[in-house]
Amino acid sequence: MHLSDWWQGRYAVRGECWIWTGPxxxxxxxxxxxxxxxxxxxxxxxxxxPAGAHVHHTCESALCxxxxxxxxxxxxxxxxxxxxxxxxxxxxxxxxxTPENTTILRRRGGEERRCRRCHRERxxxxxxx
Length: 129
Hints:
2 domains
């Protein structure tokens, strides 16, 4: 994938990543005016970002603008890639995350798993106290 000459001198090659060297917002992403550098890179190399999609850094570097390190993901999918629970098979109390024992909470930015048994036990303690 190729970026236009405009990008020359605006990133530094560090390992496999192209690290944005311009302004950085308080959110940790490179900025170009009101746009985010990685989103601009994605659009220039691949075309429009699908409606509602998040542009994910597959390299996990928020300042990387290398187009082949960027992927458009649905918000829920993007949230799962960053979830600290990805790959966990049990809750913090040792209950298995099975379909019968797991509730999926959909929140802005992704999904969260909750243990149903822990929830029932918390509710029972709350009602009796």
